[in-house]
Inverse folding.
């Protein structure tokens, strides 16, 4: 059965981008239609889970659960204290296999990375912490307007470098800087 | 079935029809076929992409247009942004039958090949992509092209469909070539820094500088070969390949490492054995060898103090990856075990005292679990440190908590061995849950069954009920600074705050028990009631509340699992504990309601009806205390119901008439007290359900010992007066009183036909299905009998 590729920018809007950017095929189980609907259902399902985990964490820390209105930051966003976490989703709905979700919340947005069980979760957290500010910057995610939905190429470009074909990379800071130079962005940290 | 396209960022999307979409696509098509597709084309493609992505229904773009997209994508002269957008739209449409044109053969540009591959993979063409990529990697790439963009494609293919590379004729050869190159990329990347791209221009000075050597993360000149932890200002292509290769190494070894032996056999049959002198390892083995070396180097490099703080995070991630890969290599080739063991032992002693490296202790422990037998190495100290110290100190680290619990789940067979330190450390494990409930509750649902056995049941029962207390205690422990020993306050007096209480002699041992790191049922203090009361001030804290919400589901699971193995003695113990603890719970508002112990009690009685007789002393004491009706209403009601159900000679031969009478008298006294016509101030007002159940149980008992029938009947007949008395009507609502009266009447009527009553209330034990539903069938039976005795007018049988 042909797998379905998740279009990263679309998923990014709903807060989801995955190292496995295609659904692993399971023999004879999914029709073309089912795969197609899986594409839309999956990000919605995961983002609900992430949102609730985020709210629960915020409330456990005694912070207000409703996020502040996003303001365009003057100085670079520090993600050191950004709330985040890990949780697992059992096999079945919506992913065929068990997956681990790594998530990060920045102001009113959440980003989630969906990993297979044996993947390096420390690296996933690092990857997410690098993706988030670059996506925020490139797509102007905290700005007004919905034009982020109209710029899949910008998100694709970033994901193509930092998470090419869903592959997480062991990049030290200098490699990251070299990559930023290639992308032509001045990364704010 | 329209599609949505936003007019502008502000206004919401409107429905557009197929026709409009077609026209729009045609316009974009014209732009794309024009001489220089510019911003307008980009804008059009972006809008199209959103249209295609946002529709729920199968998106139908014109076949010709789809063909055009594919053509534009593959055209080398197309601007990159346009290519990316075309690929995005095509991916969004996948899987789709129109994408037959697309193929990755003939594409020279590796970046483009990667882009096209993303579309083909979405179409399910793993084999085609895999073989194409491997072919390209095999040969020498044209000038300016880098293999760097192809490795991720390869990694994706093998993780999706490992066998796709071995299909077709080039079996083995593809893997061989790739293996060889990967080993080279890992081990022999350049140790000089790359050169910056020449800026050109009039004022640029010619590059005469020699390339500088690479450095380590702490600034020192590199001592050995290049790795992901090597630093340079600019990187060469092969250094990028080094990064890519290591990043996919784990997956590659997992997919093809096992088959490496076959691979190597395949090679030796293809290659002449006299080809080269010296040690020439077969490719699979060689890759493993280089990989092992690489991991060792990474582990050494992780010892350096990085100049950039963020590199520290990467060091730790590399450490974890390196240990994991070593573990995989050792599983595939046990000749590596000895080297690895000594190396990792040194690593362990280096990092075990450093809290920031705690997550790396898990793969190390896993390695020793997998291989220490083979190496005849004693690794108990490693497990002990992991299970005893780490959870106690680092429970508040959510990532560590998650991975630790996963580790336990992955090694769950160790938890079932009661002598193992894994099993004994369960109090420590629960600290993770107490602090980080929301993400871990489902993990503990998986874990709990492995922890439960006859030896741990009671301790875990108490632990679950006190889990929110544990959360509060952890909070206090964290706040209590180790330095200020004198924070105990005045030992003679009472502590003013929870913090003071932490070291106060009155509470110290209770805290210590709650916060214990090992299972210790024999050390349980007499009672934790004072501690629970003390911690009451923290009952509203968000973490405590979240933890409390996770307890009911675990309790439910607990009883389900225990019911399967518990023997008589354990069931009896649990019942007594249920009666005791039902009001000894942490005072969190919803907690007492959510923790449903009553139904668990009923379940246990159903499992083992004879316990009603065996525990008659405790049960009599419990059900005779009128105060229990208010403070433990649910469990009281269930207990009384159980008495009615199971106190019978058909369940236990030892049930005598005296016993039935004793229970009867106890319950009669209770019912008498709560149904006084002029209730005193001390009389508790209780739920009508309690009254109903008491009446029903008394009736059932009377049916079994018929001397009691007159007493019950008289009592029941007084209920009418009770229900109508002014003092009572002010306390209970009309429907409830109505219900009580109806029930009393029905029961009275039933007793007028004692043999029927006996049948209804004491069915033979064999028909347990019927007996189980008695509570439901009782009203029906009662109604039937009532109708017989008090027929409605006009329905008298002739």
């Amino acid at each position: 059965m042909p797998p379905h590729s998740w279009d990263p920018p679309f998923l990014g809007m709903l807060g989801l981008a995955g190292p496995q950017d295609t659904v692993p095929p399971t023999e004879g189980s999914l029709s073309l239609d089912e795969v197609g609907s899986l594409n839309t259902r999956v990000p919605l399902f995961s983002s609900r889970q992430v949102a609730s985990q985020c709210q629960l964490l915020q409330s456990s820390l005694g912070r207000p659960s409703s996020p502040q209105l996003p303001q365009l930051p003057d100085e670079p966003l520090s993600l050191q204290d950004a709330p985040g976490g890990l949780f697992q989703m059992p096999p079945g709905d919506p992913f065929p296999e068990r997956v681990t979700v790594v998530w990060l919340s920045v102001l009113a947005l959440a980003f989630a990375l969906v990993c297979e069980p044996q993947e390096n979760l420390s690296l996933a957290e690092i990857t997410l912490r690098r993706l988030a500010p670059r996506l925020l910057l490139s797509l102007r995610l905290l700005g007004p307007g919905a034009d982020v939905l109209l710029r899949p190429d910008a998100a694709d470009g970033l994901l193509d470098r930092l998470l090419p074909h869903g592959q997480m990379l062991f990049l030290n800071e200098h490699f990251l800087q070299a990559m930023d130079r290639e992308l032509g962005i001045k990364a704010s940290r | 079935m329209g599609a949505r396209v936003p007019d502008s960022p502000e206004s919401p999307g409107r429905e557009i029809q197929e026709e409009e979409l077609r026209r729009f696509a045609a316009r974009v098509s014209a732009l794309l076929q024009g001489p220089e597709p510019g911003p307008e084309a980009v804008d059009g493609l972006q809008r199209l992409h959103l249209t295609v992505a946002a529709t729920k229904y199968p998106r139908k773009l014109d076949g010709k247009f789809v063909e055009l997209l594919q053509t534009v994508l593959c055209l080398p002269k197309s601007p990159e942004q346009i290519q990316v957008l075309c690929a995005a739209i095509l991916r969004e449409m996948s899987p789709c039958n129109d994408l037959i044109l697309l193929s990755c053969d003939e594409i020279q540009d590796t970046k483009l090949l990667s882009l096209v591959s993303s579309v083909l993979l979405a179409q399910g063409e793993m084999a085609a992509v895999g073989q194409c990529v491997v072919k390209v990697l095999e040969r020498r790439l044209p000038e300016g092209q880098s293999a760097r963009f192809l490795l991720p494609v390869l990694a994706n293919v093998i993780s999706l469909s490992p066998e796709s590379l071995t299909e077709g004729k080039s079996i083995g050869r593809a893997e061989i070539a790739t293996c060889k190159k990967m080993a080279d990329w890992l081990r022999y990347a350049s140790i000089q820094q790359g050169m910056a791209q020449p800026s050109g221009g009039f004022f640029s000075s010619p590059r005469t500088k020699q390339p500088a050597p690479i450095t380590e993360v702490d600034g020192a000149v590199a001592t050995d070969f290049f790795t992901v932890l090597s630093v340079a200002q600019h990187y060469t292509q092969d250094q990028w390949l080094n990064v890519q290769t290591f990043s996919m190494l784990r997956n590659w070894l997992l997919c093809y490492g096992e088959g490496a032996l076959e691979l190597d056999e395949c090679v030796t049959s293809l290659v002449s054995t006299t080809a080269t002198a010296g040690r020439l390892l077969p490719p699979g083995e060689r890759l493993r060898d280089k990989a092992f070396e690489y991991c060792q180097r990474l582990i050494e490099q992780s010892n350096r103090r990085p100049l950039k703080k963020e590199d520290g995070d990467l060091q730790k991630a590399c450490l974890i990856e390196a240990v994991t890969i070593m573990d995989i290599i050792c599983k595939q080739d046990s000749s590596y075990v000895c080297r690895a063991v000594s190396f990792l032992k040194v690593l362990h002693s280096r990092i075990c005292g450093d809290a920031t490296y705690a997550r790396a202790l898990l793969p190390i422990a896993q390695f020793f679990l997998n291989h220490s037998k083979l190496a005849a190495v004693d690794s108990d100290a490693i497990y002990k440190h992991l299970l005893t110290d780490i959870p106690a100190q680092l429970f508040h680290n959510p990532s560590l908590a998650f991975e630790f619990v996963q580790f336990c789940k992955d090694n769950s067979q160790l938890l079932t061995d009661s002598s193992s330190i894994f099993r004994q450390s369960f109090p420590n494990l629960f600290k993770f849950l107490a602090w980080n409930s929301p993400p871990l509750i489902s993990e503990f649902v998986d874990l709990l069954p492995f922890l439960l056995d006859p030896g741990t049941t009671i301790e875990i029962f108490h632990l679950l009920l006190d889990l929110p207390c544990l959360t509060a205690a952890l909070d206090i422990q964290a706040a209590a600074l180790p330095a200020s020993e004198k924070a105990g306050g005045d030992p003679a007096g009472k502590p003013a705050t929870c913090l003071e209480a932490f070291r106060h002699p009155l509470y110290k041992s209770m805290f210590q028990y709650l916060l214990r790191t090992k299972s210790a049922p024999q050390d349980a203090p007499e009672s934790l009631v004072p501690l629970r009361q003390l911690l009451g001030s923290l009952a509203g804290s968000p973490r405590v509340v979240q933890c409390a919400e996770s307890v009911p589901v675990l309790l439910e699971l607990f009883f389900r699992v225990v019911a399967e193995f518990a023997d008589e003695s354990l069931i009896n113990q649990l019942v007594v504990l249920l009666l005791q603890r039902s009001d000894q719970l942490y005072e969190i508002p919803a907690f007492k309601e959510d923790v449903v112990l009553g139904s668990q009690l009923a379940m246990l009685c159903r499992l083992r009806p004879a316990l009603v007789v065996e525990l008659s002393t405790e049960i009599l004491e419990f059900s005779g205390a009128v105060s229990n009706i208010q403070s433990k209403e649910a469990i009281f009601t269930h207990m009384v119901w159980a008495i009615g159900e199971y106190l019978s000679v058909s369940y236990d031969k030892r049930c005598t008439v005296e016993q039935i009478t004793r229970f009867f008298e106890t319950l009669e006294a209770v019912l008498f007290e709560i149904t006084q016509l002029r209730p005193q101030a001390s009389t508790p007002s209780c739920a009508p359900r309690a009254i109903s159940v008491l009446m029903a149980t008394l009736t059932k008992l009377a049916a079994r010992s018929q001397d009691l029938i007159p007493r019950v009947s008289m009592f029941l007949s007084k209920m009418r007066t009770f229900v109508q008395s002014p003092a009572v009507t002010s306390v209970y609502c009309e429907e409830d009183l109505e219900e009580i009266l109806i029930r009393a009447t029905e029961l009275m009527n039933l007793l007028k036909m004692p043999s029927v009553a006996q049948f209804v209330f004491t069915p033979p034990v064999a028909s347990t299905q019927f007996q189980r539903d008695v509570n439901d069938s009782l009203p029906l039976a009662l109604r039937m009998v009532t109708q017989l005795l008090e027929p409605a007018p006009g329905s008298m049988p002739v």
Summary: The CA atoms of residues 101 and 114 of chain A lie 5 Å apart.
